[in-house]
Amino acid sequence: MFTGLVEAKGTLAARTARGPGARLAVRCALGQEEPLVMGESISVDGCCLSVVAISNDGFEVDASAETLARTTLGALQIGAEVNLERAAKLGDRLGGHIVSGHVDGVATVLERRPLGDAIVLAFDVPAPLARFVAEKGSICVIGVSLTVNAVSGTRFEVAVIPITRRETNLDALDAGARVNVEVDVIARYVARMIDVGKPEGTSDAAWLDLLKRAGYV
């Protein structure tokens, strides 16, 4: 589990084909204070991957064909910056929101505009994911926990404050860029509850009222 608070930026140094998948080499300073451990999970631009090799200047991870096809990691240019976060520890402050590192899809940057020292980024999310994006809700974009400021159809907007611009690769995004997104896990499970059906003997109105009172809809 992650929080969406990026710990460091790294660089994609190599991508080597291994069957239908690939091994990715990441160069970074992550692990200098607390050494990396073989097999640990690291979020790389929002994708949860397991460390399979450790070097003095970074680490390597294996990405399956599914991961390469459903995220940006298969097309990311060598030398590109990536956001990195190690898995959360039990008892850590949960400063962002609950992030699994299981990317739901790839969104496209529609617009970038200034907002004082901050910037506003607008994205177009795949239509099947739009139902999970809500104003003032949480969303994870290339591993960064963000608050949705506005939403309309498949479009949503976020504001990126100065510290986030400095500490992540969001500041490098411009119109046309493709990014990994993970919707809020709570929204996903609430939608599943509604899709599967209400408890036996409960009316539609009572079921929706229960969800509303619990703060889910």
Strand residue content: 35-45%
CATH architecture of the largest domain: Beta Barrel
pLDDT < 50 stretches: none
What's the count of strands? 12
Q: Estimate the mean pLDDT confidence.
A: 92
Range of helix content: 10-25%
- What overall form do the CA principal axes indicate? globular
Instruction: Return the CATH class of the largest domain.
Output: Mainly Beta
- Main pleated sheet: 6 strands, antiparallel, barrel
Q: Structural class per helix/strand content?
A: alpha+beta
Order of helices and strands: EEEEEHEEEEEEHEHH
Would you give the CATH topology of the largest domain? Elongation Factor Tu (Ef-tu), domain 3
Q: Helix count, per DSSP?
A: 4
Query: What value does the Rg take, in angstroms?
Result: 18 Å
Give me the side-by-side strand order of the main sheet.
1-2-5-4-3-6
**Gap between N and C termini, in Å?**
24 Å
- The overall number of domains is 3
Characterise this structure.
The protein is of the alpha+beta class. The protein folds into three domains: 8-86, Elongation Factor Tu (Ef-tu), domain 3; 105-183, Beta Barrel (Elongation Factor Tu (Ef-tu), domain 3), CATH 2.40.30; 184-217, no CATH class. The chain is 16% helix and 40% strand. The chain is built from four helices and twelve strands, in the order E-E-E-E-E-H-E-E-E-E-E-E-H-E-H-H. It has a six-stranded antiparallel β-barrel. Strands 7-8-11-10-9-12 form a six-stranded antiparallel β-barrel. The longest helix is centred in the last third of the chain and has 12 residues, at 185-196. It is globular. The model has no long low-confidence stretch (mean pLDDT 92).
